[in-house]
């Protein structure tokens, strides 16, 4: 199990680092310069996503003192902290756009534009709901003859929200990586089994250490 932890941690950070809105060439290049990685403009812009991943991974692995999840996590924190600072410098806020008709607004930054809009109901379901049962009911259209189905759906949504709150965001990130990572680092079935054990027994540092010792 320990052999799987390091690549999973790196895969989670890498995937999110290259997401639209998070990935920024200028900020990334400035961060890589701190690690003495120098490219010409043409060479840097010719790097593909896979090539960038390999470069960043090589830095993280080189910085790691030992091959364990704690040291890798510290290395990623060390890398992401200056990246965030460089991102903020490269994306200084310059102006604001408002679109009252569509209920959205945009932030004009130094090197990019960010657009925000009101969350749709489906987005609220995906991201989780922290409100009361009444909030859940309002997400479903009330129609005659569908009261029973509505009650079942509300109970299911409430159950999903409770499970999501107990497991936290880290669990969903790890489960996502188990589905999309290639080559397969850890199976979705194994992740599901461990998440179910956490739901049954609760999560704590002592329980986590017991699970690790079983597979060390």
Note down, in words, how this protein is organized.
The chain has 216 residues and is mainly alpha-helical. The chain has 2 domains: 2-90; 121-215, no CATH class. It is 65% helix and 8% strand. It contains 10 helices and 3 strands, in the order αααααβββααααα. The chain has helices at 2-17, 25-34, 41-45, 49-63, 69-90, 121-127, 133-138, 147-180, 188-201, 205-215, and strands spanning 93-99, 104-109, 113-117. Strands 1-2-3 form a 3-stranded antiparallel beta sheet, with no helix packed on it. Strand 2 and strand 3 (113-117) form a beta hairpin. The radius of gyration is 22 Å and the shape is flat. The termini are close together. The model is unreliable at 205-216 (pLDDT under 50). Keywords: Nucleus, Transport. GO terms for molecular function: structural constituent of nuclear pore. InterPro entries: Beta-prop_Nup120_160, Nucleoporin_Nup160, NUP160_hel_plant.
- The counted number of beta strands is 3
Largest sheet: 3 strands, antiparallel
Overall geometry comes to flat
Number of domains: 2
Q: Which ranges are low-confidence, i.e. pLDDT below 50, for 5 or more consecutive residues?
A: 205-216
By DSSP (H or I, 4+ residues per run), the number of helices equals 10
> What value does the Rg take, in angstroms?
22 Å
Specify the helix fraction band: 55-70%
Look at the helices and sheets and give the structural class: mainly alpha
Amino-to-carboxy terminus distance = 7 Å
- Which percent band covers the strand fraction? 5-15%
Strand order of the largest sheet: 1-2-3
Helix/strand order: HHHHHEEEHHHHH
| Overall average residue pLDDT | 72
């Amino acid at each position: 199990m320990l052999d799987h932890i390091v690549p999973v941690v790196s895969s989670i950070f890498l995937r999110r680092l290259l997401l639209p809105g998070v990935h920024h060439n200028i900020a990334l290049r400035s961060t890589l310069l701190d690690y003495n990685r120098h490219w010409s403009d043409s060479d840097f812009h010719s790097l593909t996503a896979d090539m960038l991943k390999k470069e960043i991974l090589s830095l993280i692995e080189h910085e790691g003192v030992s091959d364990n999840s704690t040291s890798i996590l510290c290395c990623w924190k060390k890398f992401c902290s200056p990246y965030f600072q460089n991102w903020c410098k490269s994306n200084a806020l310059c102006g604001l756009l408002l679109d009252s008709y569509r209920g959205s607004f945009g932030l004009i930054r130094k090197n990019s534009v960010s657009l925000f809009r009101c969350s749709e109901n489906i987005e609220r379901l995906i991201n989780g709901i922290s409100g009361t049962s009444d909030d859940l009911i309002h997400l479903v259209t009330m129609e005659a003859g569908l009261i029973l189905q509505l009650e079942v759906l509300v109970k299911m949504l409430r159950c999903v929200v409770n499970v999501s709150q107990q497991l936290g965001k880290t669990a969903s990130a790890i489960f996502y990586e188990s589905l999309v990572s290639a080559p397969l680092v850890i199976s979705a079935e194994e992740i599901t089994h461990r998440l179910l054990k956490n739901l049954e027994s609760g999560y704590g540092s002592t329980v986590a250490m017991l699970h690790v010792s079983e597979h060390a």
